[in-house]
Amino acid sequence: DMLSEKKRCGERHVRANDRDYNEKFPYADNHIRTCKYNIFTFLPINLFEQFQRAANAYFLVLLILQLIPEISSLSWVTTTVPLVMVLLITAVKDATDDYFRYKSDQQVNSRQSQVLRGNLQNEKWMNVRVGDIIKLENNHFVTADILLLSSSEPYGLCYIETAELDGETNLKVRQALTVTSDLGADITKLADFNGEVICEPPNNKLDKFTGTLYWRDNKYPLDNEKMLLRGCVLRNTEWCFGMVVFAGLQTKLMQNCGRTKFKRTSIDKLMNTLVLWIFGFLVCMGVILAIGNTIWEQKVGRSFSVYLLWDEPIRNNNVVFSGFLTFWSYIIILNTMVPISLYVSVEVIRLGHSYFINWDRKMYYIQKDTPAEARTTTLNEELGQVEFIFSDKTGTLTQNIMVFNKCSINGKSYGDVYDEFGHKVEITERTACVDFSFNPLSDRKFKFHDHSLLEAIKMEEPSVQDFFRLLALCHTVMPEEKNEGDLVYQAQSPDEGALVTAARNFGFVFRSRTPETVTLYEMGTAVNYQLLAILDFNNVRKRMSVIVRNPAGHIKLYCKGADTIIFDRLDPSNHILMNTTSEHLYEFAGEGLRTLALAYKDLDENVLEEWMKRLLYASTVIENREEGLADLYEEIETGLMLLGATAVEDKLQEGVPETIACLTLANIKIWVLTGDKLETAMNIGYSCNMLRDDMNEVFIISGHSVLEVQQQLRLGLMVMKQTLSHDYTCRSAKEHILGLGRVSGTVDVEKTDDFSDDSVFEETIIAEYALIINGHSLAHALEPELEQVLLETACLCKTVICCRVTPMQKAQVVELVKTNKMAVTLAIGDGANDVSMIKTAHIGVGISGQEGMQAVLASDYSFAQFRYLQRLLLVHGRWSYFRMCNFLFYFFYKNFAFTLVHFWFGFFCGFSAQTVYDQWFITLFNIVYTSLPVLAMGLFDQDVNEANSHRYPSLYRPGQLNVLFNKRQFFLCTLQGVGTSFLLFFIPYGAFCLVARDDGSHISDQQAFAVIISTSLVIVVSVQVRDIISKLRHDMPATNMDNTHPSISDQIMKDKGLTRGWKISEDNSGCSYLPFIQFKPAGKCVPSGLEGSKSNTST
Q1: Residue at 149 is within a domain
Q2: HSE-up (13 A, CA, CB side) for residue 212
Q3: Binding-site annotation, residues for ATP
Q4: Cα–Cα distance between 715 and 944 in angstroms, integer?
Q5: Which of 266, 280, 547, 668 has its CA 20 to 30 A from that of 1010?
Q6: Per the annotation, where are the binding residues for Mg(2+)?
Q7: Residue 20 annotated as catalytic
Q8: Could you tell me the pTM of the whole model?
Q9: What's its membrane topology (predicted)?
């Protein structure tokens, strides 16, 4: 009963050194098995999995039909050979992959570990059990998810590398409880340890753990900082001991091995629809031919019975049954309209495109030895259809290398340099830096130019000292002293590292920490602070606090966080200082700096003692622990006294403005979603040229209620629509662009219908508005009653910036556009807070930057710099889309041309389901005779080279409109295939039908006739490859053109004069200009106005 009660509660109970107790629970052992098959189950399971695919099941049904003699005109070989080849190739691949998984499992399970059973014994990993105490040594992998008990380092510290878990190579620190760290390496004490851990059930959250240790009638809270997870490697630590809490398949590493959500492209969905259409067409053809057979047998067939005896059913005048059998016979014969090789070829082409991305040296970042990586093979052509990009700011657009730049302390701003007349001087490389030689522990790389701050430190101004004391105490940084005085800080975020380094240089050096103390060197004097509590930072709290007792016995709470959060918790007496600091923060943010506010609070001993009791209780509760702790943190973080604010610089990455400009010219909308404050986000917007001074208007949505946000959004919407409705020229331009009254012959009709409600017009014409919305307003705007107004307003603007947003809000914004707009979305980010939007978007791109590898691990594509996104989309994406569309057009065309010859032949063979071609030709047509041209086209064809893909961003537009392969294009390729089959059959027929030899015999028999048709077919469809590609290129519309839609060749071959719809001039420097584009000899697109003079042309 007790055990069932524990199970119902969902808690996990593990007792150290007590296997008998732990075996009462259904806990996994440490044996892992990731392989799917064994030697007996491989064949049935693999075949079952393969026949779950609709295409394989379809061809299996056809094979079964071919085995019925009454309806099969084809040998079973014609379907069996391609089907078996596909099944065999897939099975070999699956078997190979599974064999390597099996060998990997064996290798891991057989690793040796030291397990404490009275004394240390060597055991295989697979024999380790929950509750065992094991010893780990330096550079060894962690055996299971273990609770750290003790280590060779002081205070129970140990260092781990988590690259196997999250891809991060920087070392992380874990720390044992003080009560267990005293066990040390004493085998006797460790063998007698009988603590019981009660914790959360197995889950896949790598960064969270909630549990409590019960030992010697005391309770000790456990969190992620006390755990070593399976897959980690022990580094820089001679040894450590730990207790196994989760083993085998229940470890967090194995819990994260589930399948990720499968993303499908729009072409995949279209192919599925077309296959259904083809099947319907196939049924119609079968019905027509079956009716023909019924009529023929009834009216004509009796005359041929002298040559071929009737089957029994027909002899009894049951011609309807004959038609029924003929229907199934023709279903078999005509099935090659959708050959099984289609799906194999598509996967081969996608795999090739993925390798091209991986091999692209122009997307390789040499400074970090990081190549681009296609982490999926299924989305390549979708890269050529992106319309919305949702980008994080920090670490994505910026370098995420933080430098302490300015600060505000007690109402005074520091960081600017002034001359002797009091005028601000621009800081350059020649500007004199502050001399930190007085501090032997300073970081020599740190630079600061305002000497007045150092003077304030030396004058021992209390507010300035408290400011840097807070920076030196309130953080989670770990120091590492490699040589005497050579300090290296291991920081979880670049911001923390920059702030602690600034305090270090100004004389408040963070030197060391233990679980109970923090040691600073304040102006050369060692000062020990008792660390009473750490109130952790998270994305909801947006602040962090520490509670310390100084040597004099005074207790203080130091807090740093987002200014809006801190200001809400200030004591009312800070009103004047808060206003002054707010002005400084506004100035800092206007310069694109990342800001934090700093505050403190004196605490009473008695109040703290009572609060600490409640904190201890809340931290040992398993259920709702985070909510209880958050309430306690909220309670004590009130009535704060403002100290000042920091401003950290995060520079733009190389090439970001040019990349954004080029993507904008490709008609891709870029929305920035950032956690920074509004002014910082706006400044970055101006730096990236997403915001410009000459914009008509920048709408800032900052309402605090649903009504205010609604009014602000509707006001912006009304302003834009009024401008629209009163501008006759714009209305004419709309008609010019959309061609009202008719739909362009080459544009996807469905897509055009979606855009015809002014979206294309507004997105093209209304290009001078921007929308900026902050987090609390966005929360209201995402309510069901307002989200459509938000979407309509945002999509009319050229630029959208959302600031102070949470990770969940990022995902909600992406989902809003993804759901309501028929447009492909791409999300790009570098941190854990971007994972949700990366997974939500059609395409997720991860930047391998300073914030770890979580975003990369969740992404579909990854690289090191934002500027590579331009090449990924405009070159690889566009080529992949172009190639796939050409491939599908040609593939369907050649198979219709190949298959429908049987249809025409049916009218000349009594609808008897006789095949035209030899059976081996039918079998090998797709996999031998025509495979190389179509694969070569799908893998290597380029309509324009990569230089012109960059130079002419508007060439990307056809993919967004889905011009090259849609339902209309499919209809055209079907007609072309029908026409080709008609000519292939009737020209040879006409040539031979009335011709006889001298002796009166016919000049050609059925076999010769079939050879001529099959030979002609191979030649025609092979030659047609080039013609089809040329036709598609010529039909591809150019954007910003008149309705004549010139071909691509018109754009790229005639850029020195007037080219249908393009008005181009040439300046003295030899740079040619197109509307909105400046073309330089190097081939880089630059918005007109960034360099040189503007083009005097308009859309």
Answers
A1: yes
A2: 15
A3: 392-394, 496, 537, 560, 594, 674-676, 804, 810, 833-834
A4: 44
A5: 280
A6: 392, 394, 830, 834
A7: no
A8: 0.73
A9: Multi-pass membrane protein
